[in-house]
Amino acid sequence: MSHNIEDYILLNTVETLGFKKLEKLLDVFKGTSRILKAKKSELVTVDGIDNNLAEKIANLDKKQISKELRIMSKNNVRAVSIFDDGYPENLKTIYSPPILLYVKGEIRPEDSDAVAIVGTRQPSHYGMSTCERLAYQLASMGITVISGLARGIDTMAHRGAVKSGRTIAVLGSGLNYIYPSENKRLAEEICEGGALVSEFPMDTPPYRFNFPRRNRVICGLSLGVVVVEASGKSGSLITANFALEENRELFAVPGQADSAKSKGSNNLIKQGAKLVEDVDDIIAEIENHLKYKDIRQREKPKTVSISASALTEDEKRIKNFLSYEPLYIDELAKKCNMNAGKISTLLLNLELKNVIKELPGKNFILNKE
User: Fold this and answer.
1) The 363-366 sheet, strands edge to edge
2) Within 10 Å of residue 197's Cβ, how many Cβ atoms?
3) pLDDT at position 39, please?
4) Percentage of the chain with pLDDT > 90?
């Protein structure tokens, strides 16, 4: 049976043609080139192919390919069909995998040892700190971190992972349309030690209805999904539902009982999601499913002491105001004469460097370890 990547790129532009319907077409026509040459009257004889879908396939314009290939070449993007060796193994096992993936960067076989981290676009400092720490530790153990490049928790997951290992960002837009735009630099960093992935043609905008499809890919690439801070109506809960449907492990980080940002994640725990306090809670559930990393035979990631010379001047300044007695973030900001955004970022960096520790209620102390 012939499998031409350019044919798959063209067929992938038909939104209502999923993998299940493509399989039925391939069973009948024995190759993509024959599907594209078929008349509407021939296509509708295939089970599941209605008049509307048959017409879309029969009227595909092959001239679209040359334009798409030019954009891909300009952006150093390649396409991988579900029948290619480079297609992620985990993703093949979901009910309706993408026909095609656009990839910028590199997807490796060992990326099947992966965990997704998702959550709200408006996290608290606690959520950002916890997310970045978990991502950093997972990546340092050789576990690829999967997320969606969105603002908030997704961004922190990628930032934590790029500092110590591999991460893959799944976009709800084409790879020629990085969204949100403020994450363009982060996207470049991800490509250096991981990949950007999308099932959408290169110039596809980030339409709202794209994101549930993106979420199923995030789940499909992973052995488990960790939800960090999600409201009761968060899109992250869609990813959590995919995890349950696709027999992936589901985890949730507990939040404050009275926080709207944690209502969704706390409800997941009530419903049976595994509670995550630290990275060991995740590893305990996935270690028997790992194909490339034997976590049981290696040490868990240790925190590393950071010398004073490794800290920036602003980080040193914050450290000097802290002791082993808790100090509230607003008081610390006032002492350091810094705004909330700047000090939050610096506190995250100091936590990752194991210099300080966050206590409940946004209080901070020096770390004794």
Assistant:
1) 327-328, 363-366, 356-359
2) 26
3) 95
4) 75
30-81: per-residue pLDDT in tens? 999 999 999 999 999 999 999 999 999 999 988 889 999 999 999 999 999 9
Tokens 């499998």, residue located: 3
Return the structure tokens found at 31.
């190759």
d(CA 328, CA 135): 25
CB 107 within 8 A of CB 88: yes
- Alpha carbons within 13 angstroms on the beta-carbon side of residue 80 total 23
At 259, the pLDDT band (50, 70, 90 cuts) reads confident
Tokens representing 334 are 């006032």
CA distance 338 to 344: 10
Amino acid identity for residue 328 in this structure:
Y
Angle between helices 236-245 and 210-220 (to 10 degrees): 50
Identify the three-state secondary structure at position 219.
Answer: helix
One-letter amino acid at 10 equals L
- Contact (CB, 8 A) for 123 and 211: no
Q: How confident is the model at residue 302 (pLDDT cuts 50, 70, 90)?
A: very low
Contact 305, 350 (CB under 8 A): no
CATH topology of domain 308-366: Arc Repressor Mutant, subunit A (1.10.10)
Peptide bond just before 201 cis, omega within 30 deg: no
CA dihedral for 26, 29, 35, 41, sign (positive or negative): negative
CATH fold of 1-62, please?
DNA polymerase; domain 1 (1.10.150)
Tell me the domain boundaries of the chain. 1-62, 109-297, 308-366
- Please name the amino acid found at residue 38: A
Digit-coded pLDDT (tens) for 98-126: 999 999 999 999 999 999 999 999 998 88
Q: Is the CATH code 3.40.50.450 the one for domain 109-297?
A: yes
Length of the chain in residues, anyone?
A: 369
Selection from 232, 237, 222, 233 nearest residue 273 by Cα: 237
